[in-house]
Amino acid sequence: MIRRTRAPLAMLAGAALLLTAACGGSDSGFGDSDDGAAGGATTGVRLSVLIGSSGDAETKAVSDASTAWAGKGGNTVTVTPAKDLTQELTQALSGGTPPDVFYVDASRFAALVKGGALAAYGDDLPNKADFYPNLLESFTAEGKVYCAPKDFSTLALQINTDLWAKAGLTDKDIPTTWEQLETVATRLTTGGVTGLVVGDTLDRLGVFMRQAGGTLLNSDGTAFEADSPQNLAGLEYVQKLARKGVLKFPKQVDAGWGGEALGKGKAAMTIEGNWIVGGVKNDYPNLKYTVVPLPKGAQQATLSFTQCWGVAAKGENRAAAVDLVKYLTSTDQQLAFTEAFGVMPSVRSAAGQFATRFPDQKAFVDGAEYAYGPVSVPGFDQVQKDFDAKVRGLSDGSSQPRAMLEALQKNGTAALQAAN
Asked: Domains, the chain, ranges and CATH?
């Protein structure tokens, strides 16, 4: 399941270095990823699957689905939920014992491709055209789709409906523009309540830069464009609301993330993905809230968070592994995963059924059509860490948008050059 935050940044940066270093060893577990699904039989084999599970429900669902597939071909599948997916996958790949199938986060995809860890099988998927194009883009390199998007989430706006009504607001006031968002955030900020609480990371604030028409990488991923006028406009909008006190970051309201701030009544609105549904249900079952699309800036945009089913390039049973992935990413099976542990299907053919079954999450799945994925450049995690460390300074003026973006441009360019 998609996490609401990335794995520890220092660990990810270290993992990227390990992946690159391991690439040169003949027994490293890496190999020529151009072979696609070639290699091995599809029946009577044993497969290992390593997942980054959100809990028992996800582990059971993946295990049950894998067992169902295995039973049709006399196969055996062992599903292992990692305690630390980044660390365990890196060790397995470096040690020459890669799992046959494993979760790959979009933010780590480029490092794995560079290390030759992934078989490029995506272009051979029979339902390739059914996947959302922007999700496929997150797992495309050198003109090839490497792996099938597993599921995804997008950011949307969550509103505490009790606080909304208390402020005298109605459905007609739901913001669809930045100006309207500022207006309602100001009106909702009173006493111990902040109008909008949003995470203090690029994984959240980057949505305003996208809505302003900005990007971090150019379209072909060859150059950073972080210090653009569009990105500046997005970050200055965030600073404007933060300086007014109508936008705060979770730690400023004694919360760990936006969902907690909303659940505790410290935020009237927040911006999170559909993981908030399960989190709020478990921790704040009495909270009344609604989910709506994010307001537009210069354009309508949101961020997507996705993972794919990676297949080991040097696995002995690549053909069977790809066959398993085809089963796991079928429309029916993705809808089964949705029922089991709340993820959103990565194929368009499931969108209608998802919206019917979960009408309160329609804004999340609709966002797939205008969502943008994360930067996937080896070493970028450390670059983001530097940016994130300055975010809270937007409130008191100790950080300035232009300087933050200039540093992001400089550090991002250095990471890109190092990766190439």
From this structure: 9-154+305-372 (3.40.190.10), 156-303+379-419 (3.40.190.10)
